[in-house]
Amino acid sequence: SVWWNFGSLLGLCLATQILTGLFLAMHYTSDI
């Protein structure tokens, strides 16, 4: 149970980082 919670939390952090990375990339490329 603890490992499942840790894995889901890690996956959520990874997903948010990827989403923010894509968002920033699109934002900066649209400015150029």
Structural class: mainly alpha
How big a fraction of the residues is strand?
A: under 5%
Broad shape: rod-shaped
N-to-C series of helices and strands: H
What is the number of E strands?
Answer: 0
Protein name: Cytochrome b
Keywords: Membrane, Mitochondrion, Transmembrane, Transmembrane helix
GO molecular function, one term: electron transfer activity
Transmembrane segments: 6-26
Can you summarize this structure?
The chain is mainly alpha-helical and 32 residues long. It has one helix and no strands.
Write a structural description:
This protein is mostly helical. It is rod-shaped. The chain has 1 helix and no strands. The protein has one helix spanning 2-31.
Which helices and strands occur, and which strands form pairs?
Elements: H1 2-31
Comma- or semicolon-separated keywords:
32 residues; mainly alpha; Di-haem_cyt_TM; mitochondrion; transmembrane
